[in-house]
Amino acid sequence: MTKKIFYLLLFGAAISMIACNKKLDISPENTLVDKDVFATSSGAEQALMEGYYNLFGSATQYIAYTFGDFSTTTLNHAINYDAYVKGTALPTDYSVVGMWTEYFQTVNIANNIIDKIPRFGQFEQAKEDQFIAEAKFIRAYAYLDLLKLYGDGALTGKMDGLGLPLQLTPFQGYKTGQVIPRSTNGDIYNSIVKDLTEAAAILPEKQANDLNTRSRATKGGANALLARCYLYMGKFKEAGDAAKAVLDETGTYSIVNNLLQLFPANPSGAAQNLTAEHILAFPVSQMVGTSTSVSNSVGSTYYYKRAFWINKNFMSEFESGDLRVSQLMFKGDQIYNTDRLNDYTTFKFNNQNSRDNVPVIRLAEVMLVRSEALARIQGVNAESITLLNTIRTRSLPNATPLTSADFANANALIEKILQQRKFELAFEGFYRYDLIRTGKPLQSPDLPEAKKVLPIPQSEIDISNGLIKQNTGYAP
């Protein structure tokens, strides 16, 4: 599929959501329509594009992308975000309900693709298999995000804690009695691992063109997400192995030397290319229609500093001369928000109309996953330090590389790797979950463990007649 068709389909999914949802409904009266949609490669691919577009919305709307940062000491936030930081968000909260709903809509689109292509598909088998594998990747991504937001103890090794309803078939509706309880965190993780392992075995290393390679699921993307999943599970050998599978792919991914190529200035909102470091990104700057452009729902909240602005104590943690400060932090709006004119924000989202591309998996993350995993298994080792130096020296080109002599023990090396994750992935939604999984305090240092997840939406509890249980920190 050409680049033009890809993005027309992607944008078209937004403006025809209702119509598409009707086509994807499993009700018997729509079976003929389902046959029409999934019989051909182009129809099935349209359904798949809706899945990608819905994943983009799920991962960037509400607080899904920003929660990982504004609830930590890297950012200051406006008062209306206090409830999420202090663990007092209500089960009826707009974002709490909205994120749950959006992600499960994405899961359902993926389930329809996985279910209906084998039933109705009449096109090339290899293409059918690829689309199903891409849908499994989408489903796994949605479930992993849901788990870190709502899974009770999912990031602290509580595998028997309540996770999520594990819906792996098209949802037939609440009136059918098809409401299911929450499965354990362990069951959800196992399902994610299964989806990603199966997807990685089928997906190509590259899609039809470079833009598609970096904005659709690939073998490298599946292994990279698998590495993240295993890291959150505390399965470090598996995390390291999955990361290595990505790093072993030659010719597809590489670290970009210039940070401003990775995060370019984009005052006009023009189309920006993705780079060899992007394993998966939402190419917002490329997503345009005949009358409007798509917003990433993140950029303006940073640019205008009405919602978030950088904690200057965080800026002072970097080594002197670090380009991630001088190049990737700036003052943003200097006209409208008079209270924040002297505060800094992230240059990673520098377009005032939220037209920046949104990175979700970068090679830098994968390298740091591999580095951390090896350090936890082997202690101080050469490969971990080499990977660490690759990330550090990009932003500190004149720095003396670290050696094994700089680390008294494995913990010292691990802490340095975690510090580089904090610096490198800042404002990309990771830090909160790194703090939780390593037992470190969030912005509210006394927040109890049971409050480090969001409440389950009250509507889900009510409509299931209590079959779906509330998280322990919010139970009446």
From TrEMBL:
PROSITE patterns: PROKAR_LIPOPROTEIN
Tree of life domain: Bacteria
UniProt entry keywords in alphabetical sequence: Cell outer membrane, Membrane, Signal
InterPro entries associated with the record: SusD-like_N (IPR033985), SusD_RagB_dom (IPR012944), TPR-like_helical_dom_sf (IPR011990)
Chain ranges of the RagB/SusD domain: 345-441
Chief localisation class: membrane
Entry protein name: RagB/SusD family nutrient uptake outer membrane protein
